[in-house]
Amino acid sequence: MTRRRWLARAVFVTLIALLYGFLVAPIVIVVAASLNAGRFLVFPPAGLSLQWYVKFLNSEPFIRSFFFSLRLAALTTIITTVIGTAAALYVVRYARRKDALRMLLVAPLQLPGIMTSLALLIFYYAIGLGGTSYVGLLIGHVVVCTPYAFLTVIAVLYNFDRSLEEAARSLGAGSITTFRRITLPIIKGGVISGAVFSFITSFDQFPVSLLLSGVGTTTLPIQVFDYLRFSFDPTAAAVGTVNILITLAVVLMTERLGGLESLYWGGRQ
Amino acid sequence: MVGARTRGARTLARGRPWFLVVPALAVVVVFFVLPYANLVSMSFLTPGKAEPYVAVPTLGNYVSALGDAFQWWILWRTLKLGFLTTLVTLLLGYPLAYNLARASSRMKGLLLVLLLSPLLVGVVIRSFGWMVLLADNGLINSFVKHWGLAPQGLKLMYNEFGVLVGTVHVYLPFMVLSLSGALQNIPPDLELAARSLGASSTKAFWRIAFPLSLPGIFAGSLLVFVLAVSSYVIPVLLGGFKVITTPLLVVQTAIDVHNWPGAAAQAVILFAASLVCIGLYFKLMNRAMRGLSA
Lengths: 269, 294
What we know:
The complex is a heterodimer of chains A (269) and B (294).
Chain A: H1 2-35, H2 51-58, H3 60-93, H4 98-110, H5 113-126, H6 134-158, H7 162-170, H8 175-203, H9 207-212, H10 220-230, H11 235-258, H12 261-265
Helix pairs in contact in A: 1-11, 2-11, 3-6, 3-8, 4-6, 6-8, 7-8, 8-11
Chain B: H1 7-14, H2 22-42, E1 45-46, E2 54-57, H3 60-66, H4 69-102, H5 105-116, H6 123-134, H7 139-146, H8 160-184, H9 188-196, H10 201-212, H11 214-229, H12 233-239, H13 246-256, H14 260-293
Antiparallel strand pairs in B: 1-2
C-alpha cells in the first residue's frame, strides 16, 4: 500500500517536472541556440560561441529597432501609468457607474490585438492620419497597455484605508500634499506593477505593431519577425536572449518591490 | 458612502474630479470603440476596384463570405484549433494547478515564475524557440535521427500540430491560474474528512475536489478558447502560412487583397461564431452545475 502510494507520488512529481520543462523549453532553447557555434542547434551540439551576439551588435537594423522599441515602450509606460492611475482613482472613489466604466476601460483586453490593429489602421485612414505614423503606433500601444495600469491600481485602491487620507487632511494638508505624501506611497505597488506590465506588453507587442509600424517605425519584434521570414539563423536567438534578460531584470525588480503575483492579480492577496 | 466623513473628504467628494478619468476614457472611446464601430460599419460597404472600399451600403460581403465553402472550412479549422487548445490545456493544466494550489508558499513563488515564463517572452521569440526545436532540421529531429528512431525525421512544424504546440504552450498558464484559483478555495480538510470516513484518495478527489473546481474549469476553458481562436502570430510562424485560420484570412483580405469591407465582414463572422460557441458553452455549464447540485 505505502509502496504503491510512493510510486503514484513519484509518477505525479515526474509529470509535474515534465510539464514545467515544456513551459520553459522555448526560453532555454533560445538561450542555448544563441550560444551555439553552429547555424542550427543540433544533437550533439557544436560548441560554444558568441558570434551571434557580435552579429546582432553589428546589425544596424536590429540595433535601431531595439532602441526604437525601448523608447516607444518607455513613452507608452509613462502615458498609460499616468492616465491609468488617474482613471483608477476616479472609478474607485468618485464614479457613480463603476462597473460600466471599468468594463469600458478594460475592453481593449477582451478583443484580439490583431483585430484592434486592423480596426485602428482603417480608422487612421478615415480620419486622415495615414496608415503608419509614429503617433498612430504610439496610440495603438497606449490603447492595449492602459487596462493593465488601470487594473493593478484598482486592485490596490479597493484595500485602501481612506481614514489615513482623512487624518492628513484634518491635520491641515492640502489635497496635493495628501496625494503625494499619503495616497501615492500606499498605492505605489500597484502603480509600479501596472507600469512594468505596460512596459513588457509594449516592448514585446506584436499584433498591434504589425499593421501600424512602417519604415522608420519598426519595433524589435517586427524586425525579428521580418528577419525570420528570410533567414533562419541564431542572430534572432541572440536578440531574443537580450530581450529575455531585460524582461527578467524588470520582473525581478518588481518581485522585490511588490511581489510577482501582483502582476497578475493586482496587489498581494 | 461610508458613515461620517471629515470636511476634507466631503469637499473631495462634492466636486467630482472627472478630469481624472477623461484622458483614459478619451483614449478608449476614440481609439478603440470608434475604430471597432467603424470596422463593423465597414462590413456593410461595397469593396472598391482601385480603392479599398466604396461608400455604397450592401449586404454582399456577408452573402459572399457565408456562401463560400472555403471560408466555412477555415472557420471550422479555427474553432477546432480553439477546442483542441482548450482540451489539451485543461488536461495538462489540471495536475499543474493541483500541485500549485497545494504547494508551500516558498515553493509557490518559484513555481509561479516557471508557470508565467511563457508570458514574459514576446510571441516572436517564443515561436522562434519552438521553431528551433520542431523544424525539419531542428533539435528534436536531429536527436531522433541520431538515434535512428525515425530515419526520415518527423513533421512537427508547418502543420496543425506545430500550431497546437504553440497555442497550448502560451495559454496553459491562463488555464492553470484559473484552475488553481478554484482549487485553492477548497479547504484541504474536506478531502481529509472524506478520507477519514473511508473514501479512497481517488474517490475523495473525484467526489470532493473535482466538483468544487468546476467553476475554475469553466472560467479557464472560456478564457483559453477565446484567446486561441483569435491568435494570429502562432499560426503564421509555426504554421508557416500552410495553416490558414480566420484571423490570417482577415489580415490577408485587408492588407494583400486590399478589400476592407470583405475583411471586416469576416472579422464580424468570427466574433459571432465565437459568441455562439460561448453561448452553447454556458448552456452546457448550467446543465452540468445543475446536475451536480441535484
